[in-house]
Prior knowledge:
By secondary structure, the chain is α+β, with helices and mostly antiparallel strands. Helices cover about 25% and strands about 25% of the residues. The chain contains 15 helices and 28 strands. The longest helix is centred in the first third of the chain and has 22 residues, at about 170-190. The relative contact order is 0.15. The structure holds adenosine-5'-triphosphate and magnesium ion (3 copies).
Amino acid sequence: MSQVQRMSRLMVKTLRDDPADAETISHKLLVRAGYVRRNAAGVWTWLPLGKKVLDNVSAVVREEMDAIGAQEVLLPALLPREPYEASGRWEEYGELLFRLKDRKGADYLLGPTHEEIFTQTVKDQCVSYKDLPVMLYQIQTKYRDEARPRSGVLRGREFQMKDSYSFDITDEGLAESYALHRAAYQRIFTRLGLDHRIVSAVSGAMGGSASEEFLAPAAAGEDTFVDCPACGYAANTEAVTFPADRAEPADASSVGPMEELDTPDTPTIESLARQLDIPASATLKNLLVKVDGEIVAVGVPGDREVDLGKLGEHLAPAVVELVTAEDFAGRPDLVRGYVGPQGLAKVRYIADPRVAPGTAWVTGANKPDTHARDVVCGRDFEVDDYLDVVVVEEGDPCPSCGAGLRLGRAIEIGHIFQLGRKYADTFQLDVLGPQGKPVRVTMGSYGIGVSRAVAALAEQTADAKGLCWPAEVAPADVHVVAAGKAAQIELALDAAERLRAAGLRVLVDDRAGVSPGVKFTDAELIGVPRILIVGRRAAEGVVELKDRRSGESEELPLTDAVAKLT
Ligand code: ATP
Ligand code: MG
Ligand code: MG
Ligand code: MG
């Protein structure tokens, strides 16, 4: 929709300095350029410029979802406990769930994802196989009490998600709905201008079988993926599985000598650190998981680590013991892969990491062959800390062809699942089949982080000067900058109007009393793809047209500039 937005009337306050707590590019720049404003940890306001970008992303998502025949609905975010109780996720989600009570004391939650409610909706609305297949979607606010909300809108506790759900009566039908979503996602991310990879993923709390993630490579990403330059194999490191024949089962002798730790009666973080001869502020390296006294998973955190300081706050009076080599003896299923020079530092097995809070774990202690035992998950560290564990290294053999794997950091922007009948079983979602008998429905679920996509785009496209949006999502097509004099402002407004008439969305900097230097800096920070400067040769009708990304500019008559832009 073509329009002219005057900067003199736009609520935008740009900042010269990065917010003190900001670590990622998107966090810094979206705040500095006046796109978002923080209200609380992981809770954000979308200011006018930010709202435009968010809406542009939503529009692309909506168009492509409509194009595959998905129907848009809007379900509540405030949800009753019962359906989540029935699926087991009221418990399973643990502290991630925002729970609340109404005035009568009934339990509610703020929806983190909506499989349960969509299943109930379809159970209510679809009765016959003729009503299926059906695909439903919504673009809605989701709530998750993330352990460490950081990185601005990349990881919010309140965020925008497009979630969709497919309902079929056959496995082939589900495969088709999944394929439609997969293709739609590729079109969406391509149109948005996001560099992305599709990788194999683990299903996690969602349940179900097949699952793939859409990852946007970026240094700020919290996911690590591998890809094989030789055969194209790609997977989230959480999902890499090595064939059994490649595994070198560990036995007691290959684990190497375990150092005995002389445990004081009430170990503190300081005493532990002293014994291990490491700084108390060090971060843990290895993570070994124990559930009911059994080691069920072993991981290596790579550059993701558990904060020993945090662990230390809760260590006393926990009993700290060593994991002995016997813990691994005769359990080749546990220690697949190989045991490196750091003892257990290069083990490549990972089991379901969603261990219930309160389970005793065994953790690494940043020292070869030394581990702390009976560290309690949920008390001493978050399950999320463990989920971040990286288990594969650069150059490790590709599970599919054996060539050296490459490792990369990325942001998870989308995730698609073939759920199968898990939720349909819970809610007895059947339709009347062609033979008049009830048929159990099979489901898929598909998510896109709409607000996260804005941040991911900022991460991938920003440069030293600021944001630098791809055309499809930019808050405007052209940013017209009037250098300052009244005549220049007049000509700029005239140019803006002509561009609008030609169908463009125009942001025009008509602010009086703001220096040209500040206006240019702001234009570069805000990141509209094309900048039209009405400056020193305005009187002759000559303007400067600048490409935000390349920085290339040319002087030309206004009429030619308008023609070029439209
Ligand atoms: P992550 O691994 O980053 O925590 P997830 O696997 O928990 O994400 P899903 O349950 O797969 O997320 O949700 C679908 C999509 O929603 C994700 O692919 C991601 O793009 C987005 N998303 C998830 N959590 C957040 C969040 N806290 N803030 C913003 N977007 C999010
Ligand atoms: Mg998550
Ligand atoms: Mg994930
Ligand atoms: Mg996911």
